[in-house]
Specification:
Structural class: little secondary structure
Number of helices: 0
Shape: globular
Distance between the termini: 31 Å
CATH architecture: 3 Solenoid
Order of helices and strands: EE
Number of strands: 2
Amino acid sequence: MGVDWSSLQNPTVTFEACDLRYCVFAGVHLRGVRFQGCRCVEASFTDCDLSRVDFGGSDLTAAVFEGTRSPERISRPRGAPSRIPRRTG
C-alpha cells in the first residue's frame, strides 16, 4: 500500500529515485513538481494539476490520470499512457 499524499497543499518538492508505487495524489496541485527516476506504478493522480510536472525517467505503468489537468508538455516516461486525458468540465 502506498502513501496518501492527497492532503498536501501546493507542495514544492522534488522526488528523486523514490518508490511511489500505489501512492495517491488525488486532487493535489502538483504544478512544477519533479518526479525524477521514480517508480509511480499504479499511483493515482486523479484530479491533479500536472502543469509543468516532470516525470523524466519515471515508471508510470498503470498510473491513473482521470480528470487530470493536463500540461501542454510533459515528459513521457516508460509506462506512461500515450495521452493523458484532459480535464472535462
